[in-house]
Specification:
Layout lengths: L6 E7 H6 L5 E2 L11 H15 L7 E10 L12 E5 L1 H18 L4 H11 E2 L2 E5 L1 E2 L2 H11 L10 H4 L4 H12 L5 H8 L2 E8 L5 H10 L6 H10 L4 H19 L3 H13 L10 H9 L5 H22 L7 H11 L6 H12 L5 H20 L8 H8 L3 H10 L4 H10 L5 H9 L7 E5 L22 H10 L6 E5 H6 L5 H8 L6 H4 L9 H18 L14 E2 L17 E6 L2 E3 L4 H15 L1 H11 L3 E2 L8 E5 L2 E4 L4 H15 L5 E5 L7
Parallel strand pairs: 2-4, 2-7, 3-8
Antiparallel strand pairs: 1-8, 3-4, 5-6, 9-10, 11-17, 12-13, 12-17, 14-16, 15-16
Helix pairs in contact: 2-7, 2-8, 3-4, 3-7, 10-13, 11-14, 12-13, 12-16, 12-18, 14-16, 15-17, 16-17, 16-18, 17-19, 18-19, 20-26, 27-28, 27-29, 28-29
Length: 678
């Protein structure tokens, strides 16, 4: 097998690579401007802090860095310099962080300062940085890293030129105290990357496009798999793989991605987005930071146990208890959205923490909730996380939470009278008390498309009905009162038959009591349909009962902890929220920036200690100085709220600070757009 001659790829320690005397990197002019924002810097610093506190075997992978060896001399590069093709944003940000550390300790710890300086400046010329952005920004970058921003040191156009270099450096400087510098330095030394160096004969653009544009990106569950095994020895990896990961894959199959999302919703009590921004993987990392092998085995054992439960939910026929299996089949009528709650309930039952009756009661309540809300035209999205949180407080709390968001009997009666019946086979099957629907068809007593000769009483034909009369019949055709179940052979015989024929010759032969009862009806029209709907509705509200507790329907409001950033907004839309209910107050709130500002200002006045605690732990968004450029708002004379975050950060911060203050359960949002774009 031949070896590559124009590409060299090797896994390296990032700091060691940067500290090497021969390392000198230049950003070519075609590269985009440096654009990392404060949120990206915060994430990087958080990752470094996390890995710093782990054992020496734990490392943090930052991806691949693609460069080429410069063989020619031009205005911006020298022979031997590496031309940075991919990785500019990461390397630049690391340099700014190291510069902030260096400037913090240079007067206090000369030895550590010297180590940091080796990352920043060239061995052959301490006045030049190891990384040089392209010429348009080189002097600004060097002025920040080498601390040359004093007046008169540069030309006026550069001395006061704003850039992300200034802002991100200032952020790092404000975040790292003198006594924390050794910790951050320890974390930096645990960063690793794959250094890909191209020879003179390699096509840099082609390789860059191959790295970034071809093939499928790693999916969340693949990232989780790599994350779990990374840092383990080969023997440990093999053991974890065979004992835990392979069974998880076997149990979940193609649904493994859904399993991890549902597991994380269950354990965190927070919504996890279906797609976008590696949300499942990010949630997993937050829930399971780097851990020792013993803890990993304990966690992995739990993951495997829950995957066993997931296997049963996917295929209830594997459940040995027939009654529980039947209830799981019923729940699957509505999809997998409630799996996080079902997994928790089933796990408690399996561990004998709760009994069979309680499990079945939970499954029945789930069905009632989903069916009633569907009938009432309410969305079932973003419900499960709040119910999982309630379940953590016990069964009674769960029942109250379900009752709060379940439409009343009165609302259901109205909707069933005039609305199309959802999940008709499931509803009719349970109303009829039949075990399984094999060999049964849904029968429309009044047909959806009657022939002109159809008659409901044997006297008048459909052609004789007036327009209004026909329209009223069509409106009631998909309602509960006009539907029943019938055996397939009988359904085939009765195709396009009038009601008297089916009443006398077909319905009496059915084994379904719900159907044979129709044979006692003389004529079939709107009155008969309405009367049957009313009768069946009373049975409906008993089977799909609402818990008998005092509750308030929240009218489609979303708890702040379940609020998510909407995607796919129509072009030109700016409003995200319609209003916010804040502890009984009604706030007109149209976007997350306004809400972010108002929440932090309100809590600064009412519960300052919560804001201080949250901001200290998170590293923002409140600071004692306006240390970098951007949009700021003053909380008082000595404290400032930075407003330049992206919407995702702001929403997370609002949720976090309200949770810190203990009032998140008293804040709800109403979205302004409820169409398909959501």
């Amino acid at each position: 097998m031949g070896s590559a001659t124009n590409v060299d790829a090797v896994a390296v320690n990032t700091v060691a690579w940067l500290s090497a005397p021969e390392t000198a990197i230049v950003v070519p002019v075609y590269q985009r401007q440096y654009r990392w924002d404060i949120g990206g810097c915060e994430q990087l610093l958080g990752d470094i802090r996390a890995v710093a506190d782990l054992d020496d075997r734990s490392m943090h992978f930052i991806g691949s860095i693609l460069s080429s060896v410069n063989a020619d001399t031009d205005a911006s590069t020298a022979p031997g310099e590496l031309v940075l093709i991919d990785g500019q944003q990461r390397i630049t940000t690391l340099m700014l962080l190291v510069a902030a550390l260096h400037h913090t300790v240079r007067d206090e710890d000369p030895e550590l300062a010297a180590e940091l300086e080796r990352v920043l400046v060239r061995a052959d010329d301490p006045a030049r940085t190891k990384l040089r952005p392209h010429s348009a920004w080189a002097r600004v970058f060097e002025s920040v890293v080498l601390d040359r921003r004093g007046p008169g040191r540069l030309g006026s156009e550069d001395a006061y030129r704003e850039s992300r270099f200034d802002d991100n450096y200032a952020f790092f400087r404000s975040q790292v105290r003198l006594d924390e510098v050794p910790r951050i330095w320890r974390g930096l030394q645990k960063l690793e990357h794959v250094a890909i160096t191209l020879g003179t004969g390699a096509n840099a653009q082609q390789i860059f496009e191959s790295l970034n544009s071809t093939g499928e990106p790693l999916r969340d569950h693949e990232l989780i798999h790599n994350y779990v095994l990374m840092g383990l020895s080969h023997a440990e990896q093999s053991d974890i793989e065979e004992a835990y990961w392979v069974p998880i894959e076997r149990n979940t199959g193609e649904a493994i991605a859904s399993f991890w999302r549902h597991f994380l919703v269950m354990t965190t009590g927070r919504e996890v987005a279906v797609v976008g921004e590696r949300s499942v993987y990010d949630a997993f990392r937050q829930r399971f930071p780097r851990i020792d092998l013993a803890t990993l085995r304990a966690d992995a054992s739990e993951w495997r146990d829950y995957s066993d439960i997931y296997r049963i939910l996917l295929d209830p026929s594997q459940e040995p208890d027939a009654e529980i299996a039947r209830q799981l089949v019923y729940v699957n009528t509505f999809g997998r959205g409630m799996y996080p709650l079902v997994m928790r309930a089933y796990r408690d039952y399996a561990l004998e923490a709760t009994g069979k009756d309680e499990l079945i009661a939970t499954l029945e309540n789930i069905q009632s909730l989903l069916l009633r809300r569907t009938i009432s035209g309410l969305s079932n999205d973003r419900l499960v996380a709040r119910l999982c949180r309630a379940r953590q407080d016990g069964q009674d709390a769960l029942v109250r939470a379900i009752a709060r968001i379940m439409p009343s009997n009165e609302r259901v009666r109205v909707e069933l009278k005039y609305g199309a019946l959802p999940h008709p086979a499931y509803v009719l099957g349970r109303l009829a008390g039949v075990d399984g629907l094999d060999g049964l068809e849904i029968e429309h007593v009044f047909p959806l498309a009657p022939a002109d000769t159809w008659t409901g009483d044997g006297v008048r034909t459909w052609a004789d009905y007036g327009e209004d009369e026909q329209n009223s019949h069509r409106a009631l055709a998909p309602t509960l009162g006009n539907l029943t179940l019938i055996e397939t052979p009988l359904a085939e015989r009765g195709f396009d038959a009038s009601f008297p024929e089916k009443r006398d010759a077909l319905y009496p032969q059915s084994r379904v009591a719900l159907t044979t009862a129709i044979a006692g009806t003389d004529a079939w029209g709107t009155a008969a349909i309405t009367a049957r709907t009313a009768a069946l509705t009373e049975a409906f509200v008993e089977i799909w009962a609402r818990p008998q507790v005092t509750a308030i329907d929240d009218d489609g409001l979303t708890p702040i902890l379940d609020a998510v950033r909407r995607r796919g907004w129509p072009r030109g839309w700016e409003r995200e929220f319609e209003y916010v209910e804040y502890r009984g107050e009604h706030w007109e709130v149209y976007d997350i920036k306004y809400l972010f500002n108002r929440i932090f200002k309100r809590l600064w006045a009412d519960g300052r200690e919560s804001v201080v605690a949250f901001s200290a732990r998170r590293g923002g968004p409140v600071y004692p100085e306006q240390s970098w450029n951007g949009h700021w708002d003053a909380l008082d004379e000595a404290n400032f709220l930075y407003m330049g975050w992206d919407s995702r950060y702001m929403l997370t911060a609002v949720q976090g600070v309200l949770d810190e203050a203990g009032i998140a359960s008293e804040v709800f949002v109403k979205y302004s757009y409820t169409g398909a774009a959501m």
